[in-house]
Design goal:
Structural class: mainly beta
Strand content: over 45%
Strand order of the largest sheet: 3-2-5-6
Helix content: under 10%
Distance between the termini: 16 Å
Largest sheet: 4 strands, antiparallel
Order of helices and strands: EEEEEEE
Radius of gyration: 11 Å
Number of helices: 0
Shape: globular
Number of strands: 7
Length: 71
Amino acid sequence: KLQILKENQVVTVIDKTSGEVISSQRIKGTTYQPKVHNEGIYIIKIGEGDNIQTIEVSAKKKNRTTKKITL
């Protein structure tokens, strides 16, 4: 789960292995749980324009961790 300090950001999820964009959407609020179909490593880009933060996460079947993102 992502906890983003700035509301209503664009969140893009990219499969690190293939480079495929899995999803890209503007979220409402400050929390978001990205959904992916397969376990693996994903790159998540949060923000837009010149204010984008990139993180790398590992997707598991049951992932209970929360990442706090400051933009």
